[in-house]
Design a protein that fits this description.
By secondary structure, this protein is α+β, with helices and mostly antiparallel strands. About 20% of the residues lie in helices and about 35% in strands. It is built from four helices and ten strands. The strands form two sheets. Strands 1, 2, 3, 4, 5, 8, 9 and 10 form an eight-stranded mixed sheet that branches. The protein is elongated, with a radius of gyration of 20 Å. The two termini are about 20 Å apart.
């Protein structure tokens, strides 16, 4: 079996509207067009060995997506971004190709940035109330789990979270949240606002994944 190659990928612009499943299908076409032969699993129904370590939610940008795959041919890793990028969908860019002994299970934390927009110009008024909400020891929301929809306390999945209001229309946030087991989606932060303090619900929001870390807060690659 070939060794695993890892790609570091940026997803922004129009790329944030490409779903995870669509991105996987696009990646198969990218490899074919770039004439990079992917190793396929064995058995009755073989499929290309490709996987993203932490699939990204629709509408969220990222500068640190990690994808693993196996090649059937020898290509210098430094050449791969140049071969793949001309065929990538708009907004999707390979930043680096490399090998790594690190396993996906080592991923523990995500650094995120976000913006909450308020059309009524009350962002600075809402800032202390948002800070108070996410400073609570318990933040119980209704969320979907493997067992269905039920109550879940997301407070333990927030390592740190800070807010600022640079103008009357926008609250910015930056934080570190759990990556998996269980992971915390930035959408859960919006759900907490909507369910627990609906008057603080923004008119629009956007998030970006900034970095990924292991349990010791070392950058994961």
């Amino acid at each position: 079996m070939p060794d695993t190659t890892r790609l570091l990928i940026r997803k922004d612009g129009l790329g944030i509207y490409l779903s995870h499943l669509d991105l996987m299908h696009n990646m198969e076409r990218v490899f074919n067009r770039a004439q990079v032969r992917i190793w396929h699993t064995q058995g009755f129904n073989p499929h290309p060995y490709m996987s993203f370590c932490l699939p990204l939610s629709l509408g969220v940008a990222s500068g640190c997506e990690i994808m693993d795959f196996k090649m059937e041919q020898q290509i210098p890793l430094e050449e791969l971004p140049g071969r793949l990028n001309p065929f990538m969908p708009a907004g999707i860019t390979v930043l680096e190709a490399y090998t790594s002994p690190r396993k996906t299970r080592e991923l523990a934390w995500l650094e995120i940035g976000g913006e909450l927009f308020y059309d009524d110009g009350t962002a600075r008024e809402k800032l202390p109330l948002l800070q108070e909400l996410f400073a609570r020891e318990s933040i119980v929301i209704e969320r979907k789990t493997k067992r269905g929809v039920g109550p879940s306390d997301i407070a333990s999945g927030i390592r740190e979270l800070t807010f600022a209001a640079p103008d009357d229309g926008t609250v910015t946030l930056r934080g570190v949240i759990a990556a998996q087991n269980p992971g915390l989606n930035p959408a859960h932060l919006i759900a907490a606002i909507r369910q627990l303090e609906p008057a603080l619900t923004p008119d629009f929001h956007r998030f970006r994944r900034l970095e990924v870390y292991d349990d010791n807060m070392n950058v994961f690659r």
